[in-house]
Write a structure and sequence with these properties.
Helix content: 10-25%
Order of helices and strands: EEEEHEHHEHEHE
Strand order of the largest sheet: 1-2-3-4-5
Radius of gyration: 15 Å
CATH superfamily: Gcn5-related N-acetyltransferase (GNAT)
CATH architecture: 3-Layer(aba) Sandwich
Largest sheet: 5 strands, antiparallel
CATH class: Alpha Beta
Strand content: 25-35%
Structural class: alpha+beta
Distance between the termini: 29 Å
Number of strands: 8
């Protein structure tokens, strides 16, 4: 695919789990922080419709994604933290990742983000290493200096 070609995004109906649903909010063509990786942005909602956060799945295997940016980004709104919603939402994204021939995902987080570390542990993702964020990257300009890299094979995630 050349830079002039648009990424072939797919439509996803609501993905419904035991406690949550993921609702496709929009397609992201890619921003500088993620080396222009295309992504799907989903709203995370309780089954009663209450918005509790957002999660995105970044598609591809660029060096930036697999080294320091990661394939998944999530945020749970403060009043709803501590219920395991981020981990459940990550698991619910597995079919979307598999639709794009992604059989494993890299998840990165800041070393001081205990909630994200717990999420990765709940998923069974394996901590591989701690890496420096490149000084030339948009993430560096945002203040991120180091990332923990977790490897999450999707074969057992279904």
């Amino acid at each position: 695919m050349t830079a002039a070609q648009a990424f072939p995004f797919r439509h996803y109906d609501p993905i419904v789990g035991d406690e949550l649903a993921l609702l496709l909010n929009r397609y992201l063509e890619g921003d500088r922080a993620l080396e222009r990786a295309p992504a799907y942005l989903f709203d995370i909602v309780l089954l009663d419709g209450t918005l509790v956060g957002q999660i995105d799945l970044r598609i591809g295997q660029s060096p930036a994604l697999i080294t320091y940016a990661g394939h998944i980004g999530y945020g749970i709104d403060a009043p709803h933290r501590g219920h395991g919603y981020a981990a459940e939402a990550c698991r619910m994204l597995v079919p979307v990742a598999l639709d794009h021939d992604m059989t494993a995902l890299w998840i990165t987080c800041n070393p001081d983000n205990q909630a994200s570390i717990r999420t990765c542990e709940r998923l069974g993702a394996r901590l591989v290493e701690r890496v420096r964020v490149p000084r030339w990257s948009e993430l560096w300009r945002r203040g991120d200096r180091e990332k923990l890299r977790y490897y999450w094979p999707l074969g057992a995630a279904r």
